[in-house]
Design goal:
The complex is a heterotrimer. By secondary structure, chain A is mainly alpha-helical. Chain A is built from 13 helices and 2 strands. Chain A has a two-stranded antiparallel ribbon. The longest helix of chain C has 27 residues, at about 5-30. The model of chain C has no long low-confidence stretch (mean pLDDT about 90). The chains are: A mainly alpha, B alpha/beta, C mainly alpha.
């Protein structure tokens, strides 16, 4: 009966655990990934070195990492907002795609040859498209308690098929030699680029929104309501907070931010939509949000980390001929380890016979 | 029953110790039960009674100490071992599965059960046992359809079905009407007459003195004394339990009543399942008055409190506060109108356990000046007022930034009371405000409520503790299935038995003999 | 009626993989564990079933391997959610990411390969029944097994001691614990069994239905299964109807495409996903805002015994 240790509930979590757990989780996941790589006949050391070099080794890699961190930050903030009130918006991917589609629609049907005007129009259209896409699921949840996990997820599939409909059909670029893609954006619809890199002003927007979210959670009434609902929905009702209204609003804002991520991606980087436009940013955002413990500023840093992982994955594909899916496996492993790590936030392991 | 005193104990616990993260719940406790006796464990909340019994039941593993059952050393690593040794526990929160039928609950987890559920034989056996011990219950009913009293009978039946020789009853009377308590005691006597040993856990002294053969008093995890159940006075027990002299009388001054604060007119409300929970309920409370609401748990009390604080929609009827019709108003309008609500479920509803003291104060104040300006919160002002409440209400806490789940129940209640009372409310809706608190905290809460009454607040006090509502109330209403069975104008002029009848659904006209009514 | 026979028959076949996953999830959720990793588990099942069939040449062995893989991977979910008390929603998503990635990573070598899977075996006599015969009894053995499984599970849950325990552990684990049963063990077992069924459903796609392996070939069927558990209010028989409904939509949409239509393919492909939302909305409206009838009360909540409040 006497195990060498026992598990005890922590009363409070020491501050060092706040960074030690995510770091430990990522390290453990990389270790597990190494074992997997080994069995695939790939040298883990060589693979990780290649990834590191590819993502952070030179200016190009670094800029690519930042480029990927931009939509991840925005989408991470988006899902983080809904997770804060324990509403599971798993549909950032679809909302992001809808935002991008809306931006393309603006360029197609309401083009004005002025960069600021275009930015404004695309921004509003993308926010509305993403917001309404998520808001629909929010409405169903608020009105009839329809499970939002499934509705938002199903709407991802629908959004991606909708994109396919447009790029194979009415919006296909006639000069694309039959490739399914939309026409390239004119210069006025493209975002400004920083220096000579591919990093665009979306970076500034992402950081600005992260800071805004920080203020929202900590210093505003609505942020407080969201946090109370997330921590104890009964207490929120008792305090007179309106659950239905907040679900709707949170889903709308969450979807809007994800939609903006899509618009930034299409206007800042790719200039058109083609198959595989999003690279799963909406799903990776879930890991981002969780790893950052829903902390907006943390989201920026974690996005950078996972952006590096994505770029490293690209390198792996080229150098080691490993499919891109290996990154997805690593992401899954990271999420497992983060979840496992949460345990040590709430409990500690004490050797029997020592301490209380 | 004196012969039992010489018999070997059914169960013998020696030197039991158990510590949790911060508390020493049991420290070297000796406890035994002999056949045919009722051995009571008496102690305040947090004295270690439940921990000791959960150890006996195999739910907790003690840090040290031995358990002997009928002279044999036993080591329980799960409740299954305890059940096999003949120990059955009726928990305060019933261990029943609501969606299953009574007979299914009876055999769930039974060792050696046939692969295909033997429904007929089970029902037959249930009927046999229930006639033998007077525990009438419908075997095919689903548990959620039963009243709390019936559910308790199912729990006891379940233990007898499992051939338990030692029955542990954890606070069994707290959910019963006086008549049901009487009925339970008959069942207990029937069980001891058959040679069972019964452990009775309670903090209600009158009941303890009525049913016990022996009494063991626990305080702060240690045994104070084990004494005979006869020839012991209530005062003596209370003093040993609390560790100091306890004053039973509530010091209440006579007040002149002011204006009517709350008036309800035929209020109807639904519960969370959409079924009627409050029916055609009319009552009024004036300034400086405490209206008590007695009743068994689950008779619409929570729904009533929520309807009166704007949290639950009202189907029919009106709620009038200070002459203003508030029916259908937003909960925050109720708060603005001066309604403070102390819900029964501190940790689940009244407070957010994972948030700190400041945030919990802000919970009911975030929308008003000076705690927010426009859309922004003003944490300095929140912290200032929270600090004042902590001081005024004596909340023991290491700081304002700690999560409230780390506070003891008494301190949580002080914080919540402070938050609800600091805004000088006109109407205070208090539901079970002393539930689960130790004597010191209970006295504090009652004292605070009486002070509010003297200040001129109207108070609606809902409690399942008859002694409490009878002592504190100026008038007393009894609720049954969401309906008021009657309002007693002088709680001193009515007996517990009469209230018990009303709690069971008999209108006052029939329950209280003619000349004293109204 | 005659025109409907091929569609109904196809509905049964293409509904079967969803049905296996749904039945598995019903068991898991009845035990109080929410497993949103079905999509990933189905993909892993589809890949491992296919590759094992290719390597051994025996499709039955392939299915067995798939079940084993499903059980092992869902054990991760059980470990995180039951032992570590982790968030079940996020853990399920992690399973889906991991399963999707791993199946694509390991499966790359198998894309475009072919196997001899399991073919159609009509049931003697029964197949001769007009209409019912061709619809229900002209399939592969796994379809018949799923009929038996639906009946068995209905009986198992309602009338056996294990079924009783299963119903109890998702409703009130504390009661099960105090009755001396091991909540952790039960939840591990049913999570793993559920994962095994999901993987079997995936393997059905690759080993029986299409007899090939393509990345992401489940195309959201795992998520549809999660929705069908709610639609079927945790009842195996209703889950079967739901699965065949979705199978029918899939079959119908293929037929419309084959018949040549002006409706663009992507819009047709949306049908199952739109239907999933519609079906969920319908059942949610019907249930009203009150208690979700049939939803295990302790679903998604971790259980720890030695927790003092």
């Amino acid at each position: 009966m006497s195990a060498p240790f026992r598990v005890e509930r922590r009363l409070d979590c020491p501050a060092w655990l706040n960074w030690a757990i995510p770091v430990g989780a990522v390290a453990t996941a990389l270790l597990a990934g190494a074992v997997l790589l080994f069995f695939l006949g790939v040298s883990p050391l060589a693979a990780y070195t290649a990834m590191f070099r590819g993502a952070l080794g030179d200016a190009w890699g670094l800029s690519e990492t930042i480029v990927k961190a931009i939509p991840l930050t925005l989408a991470g903030l988006a899902v983080g907002l809904s997770f804060t009130m324990v509403v599971w918006n798993i549909g950032a991917e679809g909302q992001l795609v809808m935002g991008a589609l809306a931006a393309v629609a603006v360029v197609r049907y309401a083009f004005v040859d002025s960069a600021p005007v275009m930015f404004f129009l695309m921004f509003v259209a993308a926010a509305l498209a993403g917001g309404l896409w998520a808001g629909f699921a929010g409405f169903l949840k608020a009105r009839w308690s329809v499970n939002e996990i499934i509705t938002t997820l199903m709407m991802n599939y629908i959004a991606i098929l909708l994109t396919e409909y447009f790029i194979y059909g009415p919006w296909r670029d006639p000069s694309s030699l039959g490739f399914p893609m939309t026409a390239p954006f004119p210069a006025a619809a493209r975002l400004a680029v920083l220096g000579g890199t591919r990093v665009h002003v979306g970076l500034i927007l992402a950081i600005f929104l992260a800071l805004l979210f920080r203020v929202l959670y900590r210093w505003t009434r609505w942020g407080f309501e969201l946090r109370v609902i997330g921590n104890n929905a009964n207490a929120a009702r008792y305090a007179g907070m309106d659950y239905m209204k907040n679900v709707l609003l949170a889903m709308f804002v969450s979807g809007a931010v994800a939609g903006i991520a899509g618009m930034i991606e299409v206007a800042g980087l790719q200039g058109r939509i083609q198959p595989g436009f999003s690279a799963g940013y909406g799903y990776t955002a879930i890991i981002v949000a969780w790893l950052a413990r829903l902390n907006p500023v943390g989201t920026v840093f974690v996005s950078f980390l996972l952006g590096a992982l994505l770029v490293g994955g690209d390198t792996l594909q080229v150098v080691m001929r490993l499919p891109l899916a290996s990154v997805q496996v690593l992401q899954g492993l990271i999420l497992f380890c983060v979840l496992g790590g949460e345990f040590f936030r709430n409990y500690r392991i004490v050797p029997v016979g020592k301490g209380e | 029953m004196d012969s039992s005193m010489q018999q070997a104990p059914l169960v013998e616990m020696r030197g039991i110790s158990k510590a949790f993260a911060t508390v020493r719940a049991n420290a070297g406790i000796d406890f035994d039960v002999r056949p045919g006796e009722v051995h009571t464990l008496l102690g305040e909340n947090g004295a270690g009674k439940s921990t000791l019994m959960n150890i006996l039941n195999g739910l907790y593993i003690p840090d040290s100490g031995t358990i002997r059952v009928k002279g044999e050393n036993r080591r329980f690593s799960s409740p299954r071992d305890a059940i096999a040794a003949g120990i059955g526990m009726v928990h305060q929160h019933f261990m029943l599965v609501q969606v299953l039928t009574v007979w299914e609950n009876m055999i769930m987890g039974l060792p050696g059960l046939e692969a295909i559920l033997p429904k007929k034989t089970v029902i037959k056996r249930i009927q046999d046992i229930s006639t033998r011990y007077g525990l009438g219950v419908e075997p095919e009913a689903r548990v959620w359809q039963l009243s709390v009293g019936e559910q308790q009978r199912v729990e006891i039946l379940k233990m007898l079905y499992r051939r338990a020789e030692i029955l542990v009853l954890d606070e069994p009377t707290s959910v019963l009407t006086p008549q049901e308590v009487h009925h339970l005691f008959n069942t207990i006597r029937q069980m001891t007459a058959e040679g069972h040993g019964v452990v009775f856990i309670s903090h209600k002294l009158d009941e303890v003195m009525e049913i016990s053969d022996r009494i063991t008093i626990l305080r702060k995890g240690e045994v104070v004394e084990t004494l005979s159940g006869r020839n012991v006075s209530k005062e003596e027990l209370a003093e040993k339990m609390v560790g100091r002299k306890v004053v039973f009388a509530v010091d209440k001054t006579v007040l002149n009543l002011g204006e009517t604060v709350l008036e309800t007119d035929g209020v109807c409300a639904l519960n969370d399942r959409g079924l009627p929970a409050v029916r055609n309920l009319s009552l009024s409370i004036r300034e400086g008055e405490i209206l008590g609401i007695a009743g068994i748990a689950g008779n619409g009390q929570r729904e009533l409190c929520e309807a009166l604080s704007g949290l639950r929609p009202i189907q029919f009827g009106r709620v009038i506060l200070m002459g203003v019709d508030m029916t259908g108003a937003h909960p925050i309008e109720f708060i603005k109108a001066g309604v403070g609500y102390i819900p029964a479920d501190r940790k689940g509803t009244g407070l957010v356990g994972s948030m700190n003291l400041r945030e919990n104060f802000n919970l009911k104040n975030f929308w008003r000046k000076p705690y927010s300006r426009g859309i922004f919160l003003s944490w300095e002002n929140v912290a200032g007022e929270t600090g004042r409440i902590v001081e005024r209400f004596g909340v023991a806490t290491p700081g304002l930034g700690v999560p409230v789940r780390n506070l003891s129940g008494g301190n949580q209640q002080r914080l919540m009371l402070g938050r609800e009372l600091s805004g000088t409310p006109r109407l205070i809706v208090a539901m079970q405000p002393t539930w689960g608190l130790d004597v010191g905290a209970t006295e504090f809460v009652r004292d605070q409520l009486l002070r509010q009454r003297e200040r001129g607040a109207a108070i609606l006090l809902v409690s399942e503790d008859l002694e409490e509502v009878m002592a504190l109330s100026d008038r007393l209403a009894v609720i049954h299935k969401g309906e008021i069975m009657g309002v007693v104008d002088d709680p001193r002029g009515v007996t517990e038995e009469e209230l018990g009848l009303m709690m069971a659904g008999i209108p006052m006209s029939a329950a209280v003999r003619g000349e004293r009514s109204l | 009626m005659e025109i409907l026979v091929p569609i109904l028959s196809a509905a049964i076949r293409s509904g079967t993989p969803i049905l296996y996953a749904t039945l598995g999830e019903i068991l898991t959720e009845k035990a109080g564990v929410l497993n949103l990793g079905l999509e990933g588990l189905m993909l892993l099942g589809a890949f491992s079933g296919f590759s094992a069939t290719m390597v051994t040449g025996n499709p039955w062995l392939g299915l067995a391997v798939a079940v084993l893989v499903g059980m092992l991977v869902s054990a991760i979910h059980a470990f995180l959610c039951v032992s570590m008390g982790a968030n079940q929603v996020v853990s399920g998503l992690a399973i889906t990411m991991f399963g999707t990635g791993l199946s694509a990573l390991l499966g790359k070598a198998y894309v475009g390969e072919t196997i001899r899977g399991i073919g159609v075996m009509p049931v003697p006599l029964l197949e001769k029944i007009p209409i019912l015969g061709p619809v229900f009894f002209n399939h592969d053995p796994l379809v018949y097994a799923s009929y038996l499984l639906v009946g068995f599970l209905c009986w198992f849950i309602a009338s056996t001691r294990w079924g009783l325990t299963l119903r109890a552990v998702g409703e009130n684990p504390r009661a099960v614990d105090s009755a001396g049963l091991n909540v952790t063990l039960l939840r591990y077992a049913y999570t793993m069994i559920g994962g095994g069924f999901a993987a079997l459903g995936g393997a059905y796609l690759s080993v029986v239905y299409t007899q090939m392996w393509v990345e992401m070939m489940t195309a959201g069927r795992g998520w549809i299964a999660v929705a069908l558990v709610i639609f079927g209010i945790w009842n195996p028989l209703r889950a079967a109807f739901g699965s065949y409904l979705f199978g029918g939509v899939g079959a119908l949409q293929l037929r419309i495409q084959a018949a040549g239509t002006t409706i663009p393919a992507p819009l047709l492909l949306m049908l199952p996903y739109v239907l999933t939302i519609a079906v969920l909305v319908a059942i949610s409206i019907k249930k009203g805002k009150g208690i979700l009838l049939g939803a295990p009360a302790a679903l998604g909540q971790p259980f720890h015994r030695e927790e003092r409040d």
